Amino acid sequence: MTTSTHLVRQRRFLPLFITQLLGAFNDNLFKNAMVLFVVYSVYNSEAAEGKFSAIASTVFIIPFFLLSSLAGQLADMRDKAKIIRIVKFCEILIMLVGGAGLFLAWKGYETTAIAIPLMLVALFAMGVHSTFFGPIKYAILPQHLKSEEVLAGTGMVEAGTYIAILTGTILAGWIDVEWAALGVVLTAIIGYIAGRQVPPAPPQSEPEPLDYNFVRSSFHLIRQTTSDARVFEAIMAISFFWAVGTVLFIQFPPLAKNVLHASKEVASLFLVIFSVGIAIGSVSINALLKGTVSARWSAPSVIMMGVFVVAFYLVCRAWPPMEDGLLDVSAFIVRPLAVPLLLSLLGIAIAGGMFVVPLYAFLTTFVEKSQTARTIAANNIVNSGAMVIGSLVAMALSAFGLPLQEQVLLSAAMCVISALLGAQLYRSERAARGE
């Protein structure tokens, strides 16, 4: 019996896995239903569409930057299972608001004055929800799993997350927005039920007073966590990776509509391909490393990611113009350049999954168990800062009129920085082993 098969049969892993999977599914069903509806049904300008996509990403990311330090403190100093129950109950309330926004948008009632603001408020609240759940989903693994199971568990959580993203993204592109409104509420309810089954996970050290000053606590947390060079290098490498991913995800819907002349179903297909690739990379790197937590393949993986980004850019640049209408999925996939485009996108995602999973596993196994959640929280703060910067850069490039396909090259350049950080982390890893 493989480690993965063994884990999915265990209560110490399965309820958390399902809860995380449903949360990721709901995030993406709601966010993509909102973005695709606005891009394809409200705005009719490449600049406005790109701006809204960037605003939506930024609104979701900001809570990670502001609240991750408090989330990490709570996860390390309180029972993680109790926090999960509270957070998942709040998701039901949040999705009632978000579902109302989607329903009003479908009805066409005050779309820009009421429906879109309601959806953005719910998206921000889901960012808060994910901020408090994020440190737990990684920090609880070393507490409930054996040391030799952590990499497999981390890989399964990452793979499950992206399968959930895949499913949520497919539905967002293919179902009507009123069904999405109902779906996000029902999913939140099921997620709450699953979260109640997670076994207790009490703190691994004596509780300390919480610091509610997010500025002071954030700086203190980052300074304390990154005092070890290897943790700092891992966090920076992950941050640049997510900055790359943010820029790409912002560009996909308006790029599909305005450069590739494709429908929202095709835009959804792009996100699906990306999610499948991340899942493949997440699982395959565990087999390649044979369960050993190491950054050995990080630099080569992200270099290949950059190569595939350049290939994606070249195909987009060569894409022939169309006079009118948008391609549906069946018309899109028979275009001569469709297969190279989708394969380059798949390559980006597979390489990305192979790059990032060992780094997350490193963060959860290298530090003391009593510090794991705060380490992940520090990582989330730096990650979210990099993602906000990526969003702002994408907004600025759109505002200055730089074509969307040219913006893709920014992601390729950022892959080089991630590769340098990954290589440095592996050198530090080998030095610590005396090699």
Tell me what portion of residues adopts beta-strand conformation.
under 5%
Mean pLDDT: 81
Number of helices: 15
Q: Could you give the order of the helices and strands?
A: HHHHHHHHHHHHHHH
Number of strands: 0
- What is the terminal-to-terminal distance? 34 Å
The CATH topology assignment is Growth Hormone, Chain: A
State the CATH superfamily name.
MFS general substrate transporter like domains
Q: What integer value in Å does the Rg equal?
A: 21 Å
Proportion of residues in helical segments: over 70%
Main sheet characteristics: none
Look at the structure and give the CATH class.
Mainly Alpha
Fold and architecture overview:
This is MFS transporter. Its main location: membrane. InterPro entries: MFS, MFS_trans_sf. With 435 residues, the chain is mostly helical. The chain has a single domain (3-432), classed as Growth Hormone, Chain: A. It has helices at residues 3-7, 14-41, 46-77, 80-107, 111-144, 150-174, 177-195, 214-225, 229-258, 264-289, 298-318, 329-333, 338-366, 372-399, 404-432.
Topology of this structure?
Elements: H1 3-7, H2 14-41, H3 46-77, H4 80-107, H5 111-144, H6 150-174, H7 177-195, H8 214-225, H9 229-258, H10 264-289, H11 298-318, H12 329-333, H13 338-366, H14 372-399, H15 404-432
Helix pairs in contact: 2-3, 2-4, 2-5, 2-6, 2-7, 3-5, 3-8, 3-9, 3-14, 4-5, 4-7, 5-6, 5-13, 5-14, 6-10, 6-13, 8-14, 9-10, 9-13, 9-14, 9-15, 10-13, 11-13, 11-15, 13-14
